[in-house]
Each structure stands twice: as C-alpha cells, then as structure tokens.
C-alpha cells in the first residue's frame, strides 16, 4: 500500500508550492560565508525591510507571548475599519492572505464544486481547489492576463467561487475598476468572487481599483489583502479579508481560533499607520520598474507590463539555465516553470543597488555587455 493511494483524490495530483530560494540555502550551495553578497529578488518582498514602528510594537508585545493572542484581533480590526471606513464585522484576519484564500474555499466550496481562475494566476488557487477535491476551472489567459469573458462563459450550475488576482502574480497583469465592475455585474450573486489585492498598494492612486466601492454594490465580493508585500511583514504571516458582514461571519466560524499570532497582530496594527513607509516602497517601485523596462528595451528583452512589485521577462528560450547562471552570480530570481511559463523569469523589484546587481549579472549571463 502507498499512503498516496489513500490520500484525498485531489491531494494525489498536487505538487508542493515552490517558494523562492532562501538566501541561506544559496549561500550554503555556493560556499559563501557572507549572505550579504547575495541578492534575493525572488519572493516580492519589501526591499526596505519592515518599518521601525513594527519593530517597536513587536518588542512591546514580546512580554505577552505566554498568553494566547486575541482570537478576534479586536485592535487590528478596529484600526483597519477606521482607516478604510469599514465595520470591524466586515473583516476576517488571516495567517497571511494565503490562509484567507484557503479559508474561503473551505467555507464555500466542496467536492465536485467548480472554482474558476485564470491560467498563470496565483498558484495557490489551483492548489486549494485540488486539495478540497473541487473542480479547478482554469481559463486560458489572454495576453498573460484574465479573460473575463472566458470566466463568464465558464460559469455553470456547479460554480461556487471565482478567484481573481489584481495585479496578478506572477504576470503583473492588471484589471481596471471599469473592467471589474462590468464583470461583477454579470456574475450571478450566489457565486463568490475573491479579489486578491496583494499588490494594490503599489498601484498608482489614480489607477487603483476602488474595491471598497465595488463591495457596496456586489455583496458576493470578498477582498483579500496582505501585510506581506508593501508593508514588509512577510515573515509574520498576516493578511485580511473584507466582505459583507454575513460572509465575514461565516469565514470567522471556519478559521482556526488563533490563526494570527500576537506579534503579527501588533505589528500589523502599527504599520497600518505608517503611510510614509508604504509610499517609500511604492515610489522606489515606480522608479526602479522604469529602469527594468529601459534595461529590457535596450537589450531587446520582452517583458509583461506589471503593476506589481515584480517584472516577468520572456527570454523566448528555456529560462532554467539563465536562472542557474544568475544563482552562480549570487542573484536569486524566480523560475516560473511551475506556472507553465518555462521561458520566463520573475524578478522582484529591489533597491536600486540590488537591481543594478541584477542588470550586471544578467548582462554577463546573456553576454549582453
Ligand atoms: C504574495 C501574494 C499573496 C500574499 O500571500 P501572504 O500569504 O499574505 O503572504 C497573496 N496573493 C498573491 C497573488 C500574492 O502574490
């Protein structure tokens, strides 16, 4: 007997999530002592680290580690509600937004139900769909992004959930407010639409989707946000969903009672007030994204225009050797073969000097210089 034979059917078809290579792992492989020599541009983390305000909040909270965290996250929810003009009852906190994406699937879908998402969309959507034995309806991408007409055409009696990442990871594609509104207007109200806005803080204010306004018109919508990217707290694991109160009440029944730890709750509450930190990261992202685009134009490299804090380059040939060669230069980026994009690499936008390191390394690897 193989244990895989007795695992849930959906689980049998799963491959493990492939995370960006940790700096320490590459240092071991290359025999490098100084991890400072390695540049990691692989997991869309904040190159500025996390704000001092978070550190202070964590230190204050340390003394309380013996106690269970506040299961209801009262203070963080209050801070979110205040900042965005919501009620605390609309908010569900998660152990990262991955937790929320999973929680939503557990709450609304089961074996045989259909879950719609796009080809090349965030890989956690197919992962959770398969894990619960739901039917993953992957809609072929259009220019690497969401084909919303294709989504609508795929809706049937069994459709329970729709996941949309905006901007999408790993492609960076973006849907405008108008496009989303037109789509939502055509989705039957008994189907839950999850709008995963992990990168929304990087979008210029004039382009940003007013998703809170959409929520008012479309109560079947759930927004998912995270403190992992613009707020720089990926290691703490904290995110939040915003929805109709009735939906939040369901999600809050299904989640683990203590899914968010006390350090994460305290730090998230602190950084929420730190608009200057987020703006610094967003500004760096805009300026440096421009440098990436110029680099690509200069060297005839094709890329997918991105509204995230990363850019995905199409090398028009297998990218694995390029990825490996970059590793040997001490630069970690993200291969996308697991997404069915074996000729692309995704590069997270770093600090100016980190990006320069990447440009130099790639030029050397491709003999561009
Ligand atoms: C990074 C990312 C997340 C955030 O994950 P966390 O669990 O909050 O760290 C969610 N969705 C997408 C599309 C992402 O790229």
Which terms would index this structure?
four-stranded antiparallel sheet; binds pyridoxal-5'-phosphate; seven-stranded mixed sheet; 40% helix; globular; single chain; alpha/beta; 15 helices; 2 domains; Aspartate Aminotransferase, domain 2
Description:
- The protein has 369 residues and is α/β, with parallel strands linked by helices.
- The chain folds into 2 domains: 20-49 and 276-368, Aspartate Aminotransferase, domain 1 (Alpha-Beta Complex); 52-273, 3-Layer(aba) Sandwich (Aspartate Aminotransferase, domain 2), CATH 3.40.640.
- It has 15 helices and 13 strands.
- The strands form 3 sheets. Strands 2-8-7-6-5-3-4 form a 7-stranded mixed β-sheet, with helices on both faces.
- Strand 3, helix 7 (124-131) and strand 4 form a beta-alpha-beta unit.
- Helix 4 packs antiparallel against helix 12 (262-271), helix 5 runs parallel beside helix 12 and helix 6 runs parallel beside helix 7 (124-131).
- It is globular, with a radius of gyration of 21 Å.
- The mean pLDDT is 95.
- Bound molecules: pyridoxal-5'-phosphate.
- Residues 44, 96-98, 122, 165, 169, 196, 198, 226, 228-229, 234, 239 line the site of pyridoxal-5'-phosphate.
